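Shipment paperwork, digital attachment
Item: protein structure file
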Amino acid sequence: MPSYSFLTLDVFTRTRFGGNPLAVFPRAEGLSDAHMQAAAREFNLSETVFVLPPEAPGSPLRARIFTPKQEVPFAGHPVVGTACALAMEGLIPLTGDITHSQLQIPIGKLDLSIHAEKGRVKSAHFSMVKPVEIRPPAISLALLAESLGLAVEDLQVEGHSLQAAALGIPFLLVPVASLAAMAKARLDLGLWKKHLEASWAAQVYLYSPKTLDPAAIWHTRMFAPAAGIEEDPATGSAAATLAACLGATPAIAEGETRWVIEQGYEMGRPSLIEVTLAKSSPGNLAITIGGSAVKITAGSMDFDEN
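Attachment content:
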């Protein structure tokens, strides 16, 4: 019965038991797709990551990302957490206070920067240059408000509109007017199945310019029932998608813009996602997502031979 080591981390936080939990198998070669999906279902976290050897000498390590229900091509907190985990395990050797590396995931190679203090890993960031795909929403504002237990007025923010967008995973980006409406929002699964489950952007990402942390510019929540995630404490891929959509508008000037996005507060798992948007023209955007991570546990999991 083969045994594989894993570690868990809390990502997008400096505090244990905050942020978004993640499990990482840093040496997953030999595990089948069924093994990976079973392990992700057993952990029952938003995502579990399995790291595999490079495809060719000189290429970066590969990572596959699974929710409790399915494999996904890209997700933010797994990339940040995996970068930290690989540095902690010595699979990405530290070269100083900042270590540069890469990670191969299904949507392509991501550039990594891993930050350490006195040899201890503190945080990681990844960068991507990828055009955002935007489509019309598959649901009316009135039906969406009903699905969230809110009034239409709660989803009206000046300069923002409901839209579906993707940088790998499609999200329905929903502006919310107040923190009170954010706290009240509850996704009705019956209405979600009727109106959104079969749509291109079935993941629902709420964002508001009203925040709790003075450092944050957006307060967010994310619901992804199709992936087996009732609510996610921190969603880096959604943060990147939001940044890409907003960055493509004239409201964001050319040059570098830095944001902090908060999430997970309604779940008791406060998370802070660092976003840097580099804009040289409306269609030319580079996005960096990052944050801190804290190691929580280490152990091993046994798998059946078949």
